[in-house]
Design brief:
heterodimer; A: mainly beta; 4-stranded antiparallel sheet; B: mainly beta; 7-stranded mixed sheet
Chain lengths: ~120, ~110
């Protein structure tokens, strides 16, 4: 079965330090996409970063980078120089094909709650 | 900006009621999704639609149905609401790798 696993229910990091949030996935599709979303306490889902399975380089967006290791089926999120505003739930997700032509779905992990300590 | 609008932020319904959750997007996206979010379980896909009148079951479709009569609108229907359907419901739309979420509807079934 295709699934996303986030093994860290909660994490703490000191302000200004870097932190890595783990994500492993399982799929038999040769083509897929991996996402990270942030969900602050307000509840909105904020897109952070995307990595396609055929992308040669790891994706980066400002302080966010995705450590993509295809052979190990992992897509860890690295946040550099943590800020207090980074405290939130973080979800890893995978885009995969559905059964209908042109059908795609987005499957999420259970999330990691990150708390940044001043 | 792409907008995905969910008609209600909070909703309280009685057990056995028929409940409609509405979602509208304004960017002509092909794909639309309904998720429920519960603590410790993340977001779980209920149903999705990749075209008008086309729908596909997600991981937890039991107790739910959907309707997509127009491209911009995707409705989630609880035929007979039960207390175990108390949850946060999130709608999303997408084209390519771009997904946009609504702000959610917190449904309480009493």
């Amino acid at each position: 079965a295709q699934k996303i696993t986030q093994t860290q229910p909660g994490m703490f990091v000191q302000e200004k330090e870097a932190v890595t949030l783990d994500c492993t996935y399982d799929t038999s599709d040769p083509s897929y996409g991996l996402f990270w979303y942030k969900q602050p306490s307000s509840g909105e889902m904020i897109f952070l970063i995307y990595q396609g399975s055929y992308d040669q380089q790891n994706a980066t967006e400002g302080r966010y980078s995705l450590n993509f290791q295809k052979a190990r089926k992992s897509a860890n999120l690295v946040i550099s120089a943590s800020q207090l505003g980074d405290s939130a739930m973080y979800f890893c997700a995978m885009k995969r094909r559905g059964s209908g032509a042109g059908s795609y779905q987005l499957t999420f992990g259970k999330g990691t709650k990150l708390s940044v300590i001043p | 900006d792409v907008k995905v609008t969910q008609s209600s932020r909070y909703l309280v319904k009685r057990t056995g009621e028929k409940v409609f959750l509405e979602c509208v997007q304004d960017m002509d996206h092909e794909n639309m999704f309904w998720y429920r979010q519960d603590p410790g379980l993340g977001l779980r896909l209920i149903y999705f639609s990749y075209d008008v009148k086309m729908k596909e079951k997600g991981d937890i479709p039991e107790g739910y149905s959907v309707s997509r009569e127009k491209k911009e609108r995707f409705s989630l229907i609880l035929e007979s609401a039960s207390t175990n359907q108390t949850s946060m419901y999130l709608c999303a739309s997408s084209i390519g790798a771009g997904y946009t979420f609504g702000s959610g509807t917190r449904l309480t079934v009493v």
